[in-house]
Amino acid sequence: MTFEAMWRDLHPVGRSTSSGGYFRQPWTSAESELRAWFAEAAIARGLELETDAMGNQVAWWRPSGAAGPSVLTGSHLDSVLDGGAFDGPLGVVSALAAIDVMRERGVEPTRPIGVSVFTEEEGSRFGLACLGSRLVTGATTWDSARERQDRDGVHLLDALDAAGLDPSAGLLSLEGVGCFVELHVEQGRDLVDRDVAVGLASQIWPHGRWRFDFTGEANHAGTTRMEDRRDPMLSYAATALAADEQARLTGERATFGRIDVAPNGTNAVPSRVSAWLDARCSSDAALAELVESISRHGDDRAERDGTALSVTAESVSGAVHFDADLTRSLAAIGDWPVIATQAGHDAGILSDAGIPTAMLFVRNPTGVSHSPAELAETADCLAGVEALADVLSELAS
User: Fold this and answer.
1) Residue 304 in 3-state DSSP?
2) Residue 87 known to bind ligand
């Protein structure tokens, strides 16, 4: 099955008829359909499929005589809320298509090649990005993960059970994996500006998520004088503006993209506003300084408003520098540019676990990601497949 045919199969799964965006949250019907599709694609190619308690999957190509450290590739199939089509699935489909290309070329790998699908990469349901790969590598413990709840109060164990998974089945083992290469749509405009279809990653900026809980006093929107209010919404709004200003001044990234308000009434001053900050910076020190600055502005504003603020770090990932020797050797294959990325990936988790890791990016002409406007042209996708086939052929030879 060609890349184009596989892409047509995936295109309607989990897609909103109103926005055109994708809702492929982990352990929902859409994501389960995608996992079933991957299993069928693997079996059709004669690959050995492994699935663990979380729904992480690896399809292995083990030609006769293949031995030694394995080469792992792949990405994820879940999406953010109302996300784009390419973030994640492009890497999975391209990996399967790359194996097809290698077979057409008559390549006989001397090392096993695995195509992986890691679950809950986006953290859109249970709040921790790269949950599947974090558990597999030991970066997150099962005891801590099992206590997580989604926005509707569903526990992780119940979500797994509803998806037909067995939490006691154990997790995938990455023992024997010699390197990992993830292909991904670029989530920016670097390749567009360079006018090239494919690039390599040098590093991932440090990033994280922090919950800002502003508390005040609920009251009547009409009868409460402005000077008598203890309104946490004002404290939040001022903090969001301060975050924007601080990020612009330093050239970093700060985003409040999600809030939860109580009691959430049109005619009531709220008693609580919880807001989630996504912050990303060029260095670990810059990230710590930015978050501290935003928190300080929040505290100062809360004191003025008669409200209170508590800040909780929900997930923080340090800077990831991909294996320089591996990246250098791969760059020589296609003369691809090496660029940094501000987005987090499973590749970063595997790199932190000590597995030599590299990333390939495919040009996104819109420069837009985590949105229905996310795009990659078919010609560039096919160039990415060829590039990945070249890389896997080199690494598995």
Assistant:
1) helix
2) yes
